[in-house]
Design brief:
The chain is of the alpha/beta class. Helices cover about 35% and strands about 20% of the residues. It has a nine-stranded mixed beta sheet, sandwiched between helices. It binds uridine-5'-diphosphate (UDP).
Length: about 240
């Protein structure tokens, strides 16, 4: 199935995308490359907003496993996403792309607070809005934040950039012969517990009828191809009955 053309897109970038070949942290070269692809998508006429993860720096669950209180660890994870958001903003602005970072946890001297109507206005003016600090609440993930912001910003689709080129029947790194879906329904993702995004994020997209496009963002140029309907990806959407 070819991916349809979507005008307004929310792009979810996992933190691990920003670490490049490193095991941890932010790789400036990779951030520049990803920013270049975002700039190209804007140039191609898409309206874009971005939700960044923080897993390259700190994950709440991992922190809790090491003895941190879960809510404190989750706040640390949310702060990590703010660092990533600033890195992506910096890379985009070096390329002359106007951006705004909005954080779900207000941080007046660092970025704007999240204000939905203001974010919409920025996008109408051609700015790329980067949403930081997830939902602002512990016990959530940036996948859920991405689904929430996609619904709030009236996005036509949620693009999830990861290190695999779609959704597979089983983990292709572990199971030989696992095959990639071209397209599948929200219900199947939830029933089969397929690892696309967490269940809360998938349910939110299903309720609001926002297709999720899963693609490999490490493959240079792939994002533009997928947005043109040519690249390799899996689309999760509401299946219409024949
Ligand atoms: N987080 C949170 N609430 C949110 C979003 C994120 O508490 O709404 C915390 C959580 O601890 C998570 C961390 O921030 O582990 C980093 O986000 P995530 O793991 O979703 O990043 P990604 O996997 O996309 O890099």
């Amino acid at each position: 199935m070819t991916i349809p053309h979507f005008k307004r897109i929310l792009l979810k970038l996992s933190g691990e995308v920003l670490m490049g070949q490193q095991q941890f942290g932010i790789d400036p070269g990779t951030v520049d490359r990803v920013a270049g692809e975002i700039a190209a998508a804007k140039q191609a006429g898409h309206e874009l907003c971005v939700v960044v993860g923080g897993g390259n720096i700190f994950r709440g669950l991992a922190g809790a496993a090491k003895g941190f209180d879960r809510t404190s660890a989750d706040y640390m994870g949310m702060l990590a996403t703010v660092m990533n958001a600033i890195a992506v903003q910096n890379a985009l602005e070096k390329m002359g792309v106007e951006t705004r970072v909005q954080s779900a946890i207000p941080m007046a001297s660092v970025c704007e607070p999240y204000i939905r109507r203001r974010a919409i206005r920025h996008m109408e003016k051609g700015r790329i809005v980067i949403f930081a600090a997830g939902t602002g609440n512990p016990f959530f993930t940036t996948d859920t934040a991405a689904a929430l912001r996609a619904a709030e910003m009236n996005c036509d689709a949620l693009f999830k950039g990861t290190s695999v080129d779609g959704v597979y029947t089983a983990d292709p790194k572990k199971v030989a012969g696992a095959t990639r879906y071209e397209s599948l329904g929200f219900d199947q993702v939830l029933a089969d517990n397929l690892k696309v995004m967490d269940a809360a994020a998938v349910a939110l997209c299903r309720e609001n009828n926002i297709p999720i496009v899963v693609f490999n963002i490490r493959d240079e140029g792939n994002m533009a191809r997928v947005m043109r309907g040519e690249g390799t990806a899996t689309i999760v959407h509401t299946l219409t009955e024949n």
